[in-house]
Amino acid sequence: MTSSLMMESAANDGSGRIVVTRLTKQFGSVNAVNDLTFAVEPGTVTGFLGPNGSGKTTTLRMVLGLIAPTAGTATVNGVAFAQLDHPGRCVGAVLDSQGFHPGRKARQHLLVYTAALGVPDQRADEMLGLVGLTGAAGRKVGGYSLGMRQRLALAVALLGDPQVLVLDEPANGLDPEGIAWLRNFLKDFAGSGRTVLVSSHLLREVEQTVDAVVIISGGACVFQGSLKDLRGGQLPRVIVASADASTLARALVQAQITDVVWLPGGQLAVGGAGAQQIGQVALDAGIAVYGMQEEQADLERAFFALTAGQYTAAPTQQYPAQHPGPPRYGPPPGYGPR
Ligand SMILES: Nc1ncnc2c1ncn2[C@@H]1O[C@H](COP(=O)(O)OP(=O)(O)O)[C@@H](O)[C@H]1O
Ligand SMILES: [Mg+2]
Asked: Which ligand approaches the C-alpha of residue 53 most closely?
């Protein structure tokens, strides 16, 4: 993005920031998005995470001006998407890669957009090359695989050389090679000072790509911060299987090991002590221990704890004080995994 492009719009602050403030969307009785506030900074890849049905797509559609919020605001470069003078050159988006005209060839498809955006046709060929579709440029999109459609959708999104990229579950349908390519591409894109907001229902999928995450559940924000903070909110613990969990729990507490949680199945999850120390307490109390397993801080566990809200193995007091904790809102009526 050149500075002259940024200056074209007076209302556009050129910051590359996405700011969502108290954003809310109701579909009838369904609270799809619930008082959601977060910011996405330029120069970073931000993961927008949540289980299926948690409100990711609805939020992104509001950011992109495709649907109106029930309440709250979403801005890009300081203004609502619809107020951007050259939205297609500020923001590139991949929301749904199913909408291509099946009879149209990929290159023809891109040329529709180069005309609309006012960029040279040569840009279409460059983007086809970038996403690895040069060899398939003359084929009809109807014969494309899902992964190829995702690549084509990304090529469309990049045509206007946007400052901000918004991608909804772009890894769907990509093979491992495609996912690795996308990861590097997004890192480079953000590394050049631009903004990436990428959604996924799988933390693992974006774990190696993102600098920051916004996690939503039931349409509400449950965590916002770096992966380091998310990981740091989880302490290592030891899972203990013993002959007498209740006596062992009492013995541990007497030994000043107070972070003891019952797990379904009668095991104890013990924090703040190592296996050796726990084994000694059990031995002193005369309780047989059948097994101990040390669990390291685990991002996936943190994610489940935040989004399921009822994941018993991760009590909320294990999070640091500044952590927002589990979802404050229960699932809205009619809400459920799809
Ligand atoms: N157009 C719509 N009409 C009614 N309900 C909708 C509509 N779009 C989404 N929803 C509902 O809003 C909730 C959030 O959906 P969505 O934003 O698609 O979640 P995600 O992208 O995280 O899977 C779901 O309960 C979904 O069924
Ligand atoms: Mg979605």
From this structure: 1
Task: Tell me, in angstroms, the distance from the centre of ligand 1 to residue 327's CA.
Answer: 18
**pTM, full prediction:** 0.76
Find the domain containing 180 and state its range: 3-231
- For residue range 60-111, list pLDDT tens digits in order: 999 999 999 999 999 999 999 999 988 888 999 999 767 788 899 999 999 9
Q: Are residues 71 and 211 in the same domain?
A: yes
Q: Report the relative pairing of strands 164-168 and 195-200 from DSSP bridges.
A: parallel
Of 34, 49, 58, the one to substitute when testing ligand 1's pocket (max ligand atoms within 8 A of C-beta) is 58
Query: How confident is the model over 116-132, as pLDDT tens digits?
Result: 898 999 999 999 999 99
**Boundary of a domain, candidates 295, 314, 333:** 295
Location of structure tokens 């040390």: 294
∠ CA 264-265-270, nearest 5°, is 70
Among 314, 288, 63, smallest CA distance to 198 is for: 63
- DSSP letter at 140? B
**Residue 8: what residue type?**
E
Asked if residue 261 and residue 142 are part of one domain, the reply reads no
